[in-house]
Amino acid sequence: MRFLINEIKTTAASLSRVPGFVLTTVFTLSLTLGVLLAAFSLNHLLIFKALPYPDAQNLILMEQELQEGERKYSGSQYFVAQKLMYLQQKTLASMTMVFRSSAILASLRDKPLTELSYVTPEYFDMLGVPVVLGRGFTEQESIDSNTASALISEQLWREQYAADADIVGQSITLGEQQYKIVGVVASSFAEPGNFADDANSQIWLPWDFHGQDEETWNYVYSQTAAIGKLLPATTINQVSDEFNALVDPIFQQNGRVGHAKNQAIIAQFQDLQVAIVGDNKYIALLILLGAGALLLIACANIVNLFFSRAAQRQRALVIQATLGAKLKHLFFDIWLESLLLCVASMVIGLVIAGWSIELLRSVASHALPRLNELSLDLTAIAFAGTLTLTLSLIFAVITLKLINHKQLISQLQSSGKGTGAQVNSKVRNTLVASQICLATLLLIVTSLVMSNALKVLNHPLGFEDENLYNLRLDVGEGYPEKEGKMQLSRDLLAQLKNIDGVTEVSRASNAPIRRGSNNTGLFNNDSVKLGHFSFVTIDDNYFNTVGLKVLAGRGYNQQDIIEDGDNIVLSKAAATKVVAATGDGKGKIEDIIGKAVYSAGGDIWTVIGVVGDVYNHYNHERTQGAMMYFSSSRTNFIIRMQEGNILAKTDILNLLDEHFSDIKVWRFSSIADIHEQLVYQKKLTLWLSLVLGIFALLLAAVGIYGVISYNSQMRRYELGIRMSLGAKSKRILVEFISESFAPIAAGFGLSLLLAVMLYTWAQQHINQWLSFDWLMISSCLLALIVIALGACYFPAKKIIASDPIKALRNE
Predict the structure, then answer these.
(1) Less CB within 10 Å around the terminal CB: N or C of the chain?
(2) For residue 670, what pLDDT is reported?
(3) pLDDT value at position 766?
(4) What does the alpha-carbon distance between residue 102 and residue 175 come to, in Å, rounded to a whole number?
(5) How far apart are CA 429 and CA 744, in angstroms?
(6) Pairing outcome for strands 636-641 and 502-507
(7) Sign for the pseudo-dihedral over CA of 560, 561, 565, 566
(8) Residue 771: per-residue pLDDT
């Protein structure tokens, strides 16, 4: 042990005499190791680590799919089908239903909009929900019991109720309904990510109070799902078969109405972990591959540093060999030096990884699932230790290959021409080619991802989102009659117009862009489906307020709103689809004005107009901008302000306090903020890709320059002789660059081959994250070529520009 301690002290003292080598090695390695460890932790969490629930491997997400001929529509669920399975299933150990919503917490002074989960009692045992106080739901809150109980989150308990130890038994009011608090859910509970677009629940309520119609086949909901726990020896396919046999026959009797033919409800059940992670595992793998490529580039740079270090230590190694040191003793000295550097790099890398994870959790919690569970666990630390040992051995072995032990003694009398230790040209070429290959591959991937992000970020919305706001109000139960609500809507509209700076106000069921959508199908009179479109209900001033241009026909007028008639307006994309599905497909959008279209239930609508498309990133891939607009009067308002004026929530609250004291603000936000949230993931992806690409370029530039510079130093004597014999500097320079560029070209060729293979794989798994852009890719490759040429040119130019006599003297 004393011997080892002395060796460590001696090695550390030796390294202290070369601070530049140490700082460069540790900085390069620690930075890349930190990124790699964060990427490893993310992949371990998403792909291998089990969900934090009891018997997580037996949990399944139970969703439904509407099959219509060869087409399948997923993402929306029938309550009636879900409840039927819940009551009659026999293949599951247990099953729970979940519906996500939000409501005004009226019992608090500021009446915040609060995220809710309506659940059946099985939810708490199945997911092992920890409680700080009280209990979870039991048979007392079972389905159809109508027991008004509630659990609140620990966060809500601490922030709004000052961690009151007597909170259990107190009441809270949501909307008009009062509930008795029976428990507090611990903050350590990781809520299933079935609803990735929602914030975590703050209150859990019994299923009976969700307020939706669960006895009809006419409505579907996107914010509901069921979770099941498999019985021993039961498979997902068996549960799916039971669902199909139980639900579809009843759907065939009650659900197939009007123009919707050849429909079926089928199970879309899958492992809960697979459902939560989804395609994000491929994104995580891509991040890991990028971090791994950076590490390999960094390692190539460090190998070159070790070569230089070995050349520097050559005479010391010769003396050791002369005094009887064996090859294994020399290896131990080199390995110990490498190990100390790698350990120091890994310690700093762990700190960087911890910072990276915290940054990832703060900026990407809505972009990737399970990030609240992400941390540097024992697996990551074990991986770090293994990687440290492996890298130190690799660096030591490669450095040792440079040393010919049998010739060390004779090198004591070396002439000094060049250096005593010279790296084989194949090794140098391999280093250059590998760095170019990895850097090029990384740049191609990041350019594909950046192109996709820029495509989304630069896509026009179809309207001006600045100075535009969305206001949703909660009118409570004070206006039960339709006429009363319509009059209230008109009164609110008139008062909102009186706010300073307001230029236009309209009513609509939803904001022009948002997360989520309402969808329905359109058919012609022969029951041929014309398309499946998103829709929104609006008033006569909506298109003017939002700024959508009427391209054909007309928009709605006041008479349409009063009559609440059967007219419909289509977006250009929807009209184009309808035209394509009728006749010979060569008609114009103007041709459908006045035509009748039909709903699945047989309702008849007359097309009166066509307007411009709205780009909603959330559902554009599915809808391609196809939208329908129905006339209606609502208490959700779209407000346009004068340029330079800002509408604050306090302006709305003051107006309500003065004229409508019983009405609350449900949700208020600017359309620009909504758009920012929708594209946030793409912005994050763009910046991460940009940083990764720049880092790859810098590492590649330093690495290639280091190897070429080392090569030029090894050839100083040769170049000096050629210049002394009268060779032209220009010719020598061209030949040197040509020879140096050969491995660079080989690296480019290999990277392009790998890029084609990777792109083929990516199209099948993460195509929505990639966009092929020749300009972007060409720019990245051109930047790398320029850097490579510079790395070849400047080292040779430095020698050629010097006095040949100095080169011959090795000065």
Answers:
(1) N
(2) 94
(3) 61
(4) 10
(5) 8
(6) antiparallel
(7) positive
(8) 65
